[in-house]
Amino acid sequence: MTILWTIGDINGIGPEIILKSFMKLERGEQFVVVGSFKVLQHYVDVLSLPVQLKRIKNIEAISTMDAAQKVLPVLDVGKSIRLTQGKVSASAGELAMMAIERATTLCLMKRADAMVTAPIHKEAISKAGYSFSGHTDYITYLCGSDFSQMMLCDRQSKLKVVLATVHVPVSKVSALVRQDGIEKSIVAMAESLAKDFAVQDPRIAVLALNPHASDGGVIGNEEQLTLEPQIKKLQKNYRVEGPFASDGFFGTASYNAFDAVLAMYHDQGLIPFKMLAFETGVNVTMGLPIVRTSPDHGTAFDIAGKGIASEASFIEATLMACEIARARQMQNEEGQ
Q1: What transmembrane ranges does the database entry give (predicted)?
Q2: Strand 260-263 vs strand 203-207: parallel, antiparallel, or unpaired?
Q3: The CATH number of the domain where 302 resides is what?
């Protein structure tokens, strides 16, 4: 199995966590970094890491390599670039997106089984001239998909959280929930849980938008007008329950009774998730024809190049990518 690691923003911790992950992961899969050989070699030297790199010109070159050996192949995608650790750089943003484009293309062509993306910086890719809000939007575009959504997963607590709205101001959440509803999210969750995690007929919880689930309409009415009717409709085909008041839901660990949770907005879902899985959380992108995961953290410019970045989430993202790729392969073989 071939797993591609995109280098992320080279001025952040991406190269460091990639190298540290390679040192700890068991040799069985073939890992390939898509990015810059010179940059990775710089981090190997500066951090004194016992990793041997090999520059390759195309993915076919790995066929002659032994995955059990401690050699990490690097597929160069861009021109030489100067490091400015901890700072926003247009050239770093361009390299990050070029790596993502190459990895996505290779996965679509079935030359690789999955991709794991190291963190990028939104301002850097904007300075590089990309109009996408992040790598997920760009990957979705490259895949020709109409819809994608992130599912935050933790293998230890088994918690899986999806957000009905993501990076939008809180002032716009109510209108978006009313406008878009939850049906598309629930369908995507059910499909991903079945295809990627072998959870047939999953049990899904929906969190309320308002405190105390609005107390019967006393504190807002989104529950009565939008969530409850849609949940009732969805229950004809899916095991969906709610809306639950989020404080009590997480406070009593009710999530343990469900396969996944749909939160209404960013902080409602991610604060409790990161309290439970700050270093082990993984972002799995639903709705794509390829397998893509990423660590649940950012570029961490403040500690770039210091050798103190934790690779835990990147390792988890890699292990989950492998599990999902195997699950999809098994389903494809059974369907033949």
Answers
A1: none
A2: parallel
A3: 3.40.718.10
Tell me the C-alpha distance between 125 and 114, whole Å. Answer: 23
- Residue 309, Cβ neighbours under 10 Å: how many? 21
Asked whether the beta carbons of 141 and 132 are under 8 A apart, the reply is yes
Tell me if residue 31 falls in helix, strand or coil.
strand
Tens digit of pLDDT for each residue in 156-190?
888 999 999 988 889 999 998 988 889 999 999 99
Six token digits for residue 66: 């032994």
CA 144 to chain centre: 18
- What values do phi and psi take at 234, rounded to 5? -65, -25
Strands (E), the chain: 2-6, 30-35, 52-56, 71-76, 114-117, 149-153, 160-163, 203-207, 239-244, 260-263, 282-286, 292-295
C-alpha 179 chain-centroid distance: 26
By the 8 A CB rule, do 12 and 51 touch? no
As a 3-state breakdown, the chain gives helix, strand, coil percent values, each rounded to 5, of 45, 20, 35
Provide the whole-model pTM. Answer: 0.91
Residue 150: burial class (beta carbons within 10 Å; 0-12, 13-18, 19+) = buried
Residues 121 and 33 in one domain: yes
Pair (204, 121) in one structural domain: no
